[in-house]
Amino acid sequence: VVYCNNPTVGLQAIVALHDTTLGPALGGVRMWPYDDEGAALDDVLRLSRGMTYKNALAGLDHGGGKAVIVGDPAHDRTEMRMRCFGRFLDSLGGRYITAEDVGMTAADMECILQETPWVTGTHEYRGGSGDPSPFTAQGTLAGIRACLRERFGHTGIGEVAYAVQGAGHVGLELIRRLRDHDATVYVSDVDPACVQRAVDEFGCHAVEGGAILDTDAEVFAPCALGGVINADTLPRLRCEIVAGAANNQLADTAAGDELHRRGIVYAPDYAINAGGVMNVSLELSGYNAERAHAMTERIEGTVSAILERARREGIPTWLAADRLAEARIAERAALRASAPGTSA
Questions:
Q1: 8 Å CB contact between 54 and 84
Q2: What is the mean pLDDT of residues 310-328?
Q3: Which of 28, 102, 300, 311 is 20 to 30 A from 246 in CA distance terms?
Q4: List of E strands, the chain
Q5: CA end-to-end span of the chain, whole Å?
Q6: Which DSSP state fits 40?
Q7: With contact defined as beta carbons under 8 Å apart, do 82 and 29 qualify?
Q8: How does strand 25-26 pair with strand 63-70?
Q9: Contact between 31 and 68 (Cβ < 8 Å)
Q10: What are the tens digits of pLDDT across the range 169-201?
Q11: What residues act catalytically?
Q12: Structure pTM?
């Protein structure tokens, strides 16, 4: 864990590198008005661990890392803060590669890029991939298909209803894709303007705040911040599937265990929302959008493998996903430990 504080430009940031067994850490930088430093630290630690497991399941040669910048994106976003963060990032020598996350934009990545090459998610005219949100939404939809097959024996997106919590960049992209299949979509967001846009542009049904948990929709899709599945919200869920793009949806593993006990199909967040990191990872070897789309569609198979293992072993899906990710990390560690030219 590395702290960066620069009072001159008002930057307060934390970078957490969780594991680099698979390669340099790759994960986004988030800007958020945390209540205090402890809240920021807790978030970056949870997020960095999630990136280790996400990258492992996604088949990427990257470990897990994450960064948070303390501040309100609506008021505290400045060029100098971003460039200062870039200089700080550069001092890590490529051990951590950043990307766009909540509260950040492709324009912010451009500012960071002025100070360090360890940036992905830059504008297309620079050879980058731009906003990763469409790929995150594409992968989430692919994972939903796997969940529908598991629960209902079909992959008809439009045959069930969805309660989408969060209509930001990713949430709105997911909503658009769901409505392309004529699915019924209920939507909530802390920003009423985001909800109104979903209603006006896509014909969604607006829901007030936390009431999104109480809808009769078959699929609950968390696309906001983490911790939404917890001891308080679990008794309110009326869905049969939880499959969304938010990170760290489970407040703790007990919440995942309870979903399993209740028979609710849960797509582990770091498996289903990996489309964005798959997309930006290709910038490091020469970006190709067609390849990015093909990689993202693999998420359906990944989620299916998790669901199948959970069913076969009688375990919660979060545990099945962890075991699959940890197996790949252990195999890479064993490969690194073996001498070249030898066999185990």
A1: no
A2: 97
A3: 311
A4: 2-6, 11-19, 25-26, 29-32, 63-70, 96-97, 161-165, 184-188, 205-206, 219-222, 241-242, 265-266
A5: 35
A6: H
A7: no
A8: parallel
A9: yes
A10: 899 999 999 999 999 999 999 999 999 999 999
A11: 66
A12: 0.89
